[in-house]
Amino acid sequence: MTITSAHIPAIVALIAGVLILVMPRLLNFIVAIYLIFIGLVGLGVLRALHL
Asked: I want to staple 45 with a disulfide (CB 3.0 to 4.6 A). Which of 13, 35, 40, 41 is the partner?
């Protein structure tokens, strides 16, 4: 199986779901990190850093 950039959101969601089931208090941190990352991607900050 080849993993492309289209698979990354699904993989992240799967990992986050498992972590939330194991440690429910982790939900706040996972959501916060996700929102910050999506905001940075939306603003193009990561593209400017060549990441």
From this structure: 40
